[in-house]
Design goal:
Blueprint: H1 11-19, H2 22-33, H3 39-43, H4 51-63, E1 67-69, E2 75-77, H5 79-82, H6 85-98, H7 106-114, H8 116-133
Antiparallel strand pairs: 1-2
Helix pairs in contact: 7-8
């Protein structure tokens, strides 16, 4: 399927066009940080994404090379998606700093502040392990 038409070659624009809507980032969060991999698991997220929107976002993630869908119907992050882990960790830290009602676990926030590289490596490894262990 052809890539969507880009508004410009600006790197920020590329990022916004790839994952700049609220649902795509939340699906990526579930895929990369919460270990969700099936359609029904994504539907159970606390934000209650509509089925048509979820189907569209999962399709777009595949088209953009951020997820693959196995013969078992489970979605897996690609290396390109795993490269977003540091960005997601930074977003969590930013939210933990500026949102008094954040649900970010204090232990995660502390670890991200003091040992970010090892946390990202551990997250990357757990995503890779899920990929290779899933039948």
């Amino acid at each position: 399927m052809p890539r969507r038409r880009r508004r410009s070659d600006c790197p920020i624009n590329f990022a916004v066009e790839t994952f700049g809507d609220r649902w795509t980032l939340l699906v990526l969060r579930d895929l990369l940080l919460k270990g969700r991999s099936s359609y029904s698991e994504f539907l159970r997220a606390e934000e209650h994404i509509a089925t048509n929107i979820l189907a569209d976002r999962l399709q777009r993630l595949q088209e953009d090379g951020l997820a693959t869908r196995g013969a078992d119907g489970r979605y897996r992050p690609t290396a390109k998606a795993l490269d977003l882990l540091p960005v997601l960790v930074e977003m969590i830290l930013w939210s933990a700093t500026h949102d008094q009602g954040t649900a970010a676990p204090a232990e995660f926030v502390e670890r991200a502040r003091h040992d970010r590289d090892s946390l990202v490596a551990e997250l990357r490894s757990s995503c890779t392990t899920v990929q290779t262990q899933t039948p």
